[in-house]
Every structure is written in structure tokens, then in C-alpha cells.
Amino acid sequence: MNFPIFPLAIAAVVLLVFLYFFPISLWVTAIFSGVRVSLFQLAFMRVRKVPPSLIVNSLITSTKAGLQLTANDLETHFLAGGNVPSVIKALISADKANIPLSFKQATAIDLAGRNVFEAVTTSVNPKVINTPSVAAVSQDGIQLIVIARVTVRANIAQLVGGAGEETILARVGEGIVSTIGSSKSHKEVLENPDKISKVVLSKGLDAGTAFEILSIDIADVDIGENIGAKLQTDQASADLRVAEARAEERRAMAVAMEQENRAKTQDAKARVVEAEAEIPKAIAEAFRSGNLGVMDYYKMRNVQADTEMRDSIANPGGSGSGSIKPGREEGRQS
Description:
By secondary structure, this protein is of the alpha+beta class. It has helices at 5-21, 24-32, 39-47, 52-64, 71-79, 84-96, 103-111, 116-124, 165-181, 186-191, 194-201, 227-289, 294-314, 324-333, and strands at 127-130, 134-137, 142-154, 211-226.
């Protein structure tokens, strides 16, 4: 007996396609769970490439938790690229913790790229953020290195458009630097580290952020370098280099002036020598013109000889003594 295999295969394929587009078991589960959804809705979900099991299971969970949601709401959020299970978990957690959170807010937070369930968890159970080491200098020049722990709670209303943890850490670091910088001595900070917490908290650093700062606790305060002394040393070194440069400039100017004076002296001596070279010419001209006689000339030579003799006595070892004798002999002959 031959069985019609081909018609049976076609019937099996048709049945599988029908069960794929019309998940009867999932529809039955939804009916017994009190969720109103039709087979055609499930089939249309398949056509729109929305997993029916995800939507139905999320609807069952929300309905059992007392949330009033529809399949269209969840399907729209899924098609928008949202995380439907995370939104359902966040709504249930917020409802149990009496935190006002609507489906519209939850989907907006989820589509903004934030983990809405984690945000609700943080709102219920605040978390601690450790700041990196913040270095600041007090007015006496001592550097302090501070590590703080910031306890924050999520602000549901500011999750969309609010700043994140990086902004909180930056503002806390800025507050620590300004508080230590306004302290007259580093000892004041070491004696009362809670002063930093009070000043920073009073500035309202959580404005415009997605978190609410509950407390700021100083975990550690270490003493760093003596920045004031280091700056003074650097300034003294800089002043020394400037003074040395100015002294070198004055020394160079003095050397240049000395060289200039020497040049002027040599120039004056050259002029004297040049003027003395004109004397024999003048004497010769006087002889030719009859204005100078022989006796007058010998008298002038005797005077020169006496002058050289006095110079040799005043300056022993001078060269003027060698020319005295001829002058005196000329005087004697006259």
C-alpha cells in the first residue's frame, strides 16, 4: 500500500507555517494568564518581525504585577529599539518601592541609552562613587592629596538630559580644590576634613545631573610636596639668572668702554706725535726767516737738557739721562 508522501509533506509544511504565524500555545498561555491578545495580533507581530513570546511574557509579568499595559505599547517600544524586559522590571521595581515612574518616562530613559532598571535600583539602593586622587594646595604652599567617596541616588526626573557620573566627579574635585585653596594652612584641613564635605555639599553640585548627592565623605588625606617652597626656589633661581645676565651685560659694556678709551688714548698719542713732528719743520722755517738765531736755539736745547735731567732724577732708570750731556756741552761751548 503506497502512502501519499508528497501531500503529507505539503500538509506538514503548511501546518508548521500556520503554527509559526499563529502560536496557539502562546495564545493559550496568555488567555489563562489574564492577558487579552488575539491570534491575529500574534500573527501580525510575526509579520512585523517582533517576537511574540517576548511581548506576551512581558505582558504576563506586568499584568501579574498590577501594571496596566497593552501589547501595542510594548510592541511600539520594541520597534523603536528599546529593551522591553528591562522597562518592565524597572516599572515593577519602581511600583513596589513607591517611586513615581510612568511607562512613558521608563521608555524615554531606555531609549536615551540609560539602563532604566539600574537607575531604579540606584534610586532605591544608593551607590558609592570613589573619586580619583585630587591634589590641591593650601595658602601656606603645602600640597594635599584627597580621596573622597560620594554617595549618590538616581534622580528619575533628570535621567533624560541629565549629566552623568563624570560630571559629579569633576564638580566634587573642583569643590575640593577650591576648599583647600581657600584654607590658610594645611593643618586646618587635616584637623577638620569634614570641612571639605560641608563646603562641597553646600554648593549644590548635583544641579542638572541625573543623580542626587546624599553625602560626601573624605576617605583619605595625604600630604604631598611643599609647592610654595619649590616655587620660591624656582623664583630665586630665575632671579639669579636674570641678575647674572645683567651683570654680564654691564661687564661687556665696561670692557667695550675700556677698549674705546684705549683707542681714544692711542689716537691722542698719535696726534701728539704728529704735532711733535711739526716742531723741527717750524724751527727750520724760523731759521730761514731769521726769527730764530743760533744762540736762541742753543738756549732752548739747554732748557730741554735740564728738563730731561730733572725727569731722570725723578724717574730713576729712565731714558732721559743719556741726552743731558750733549745739551750741557753745547751750553758750555756757547
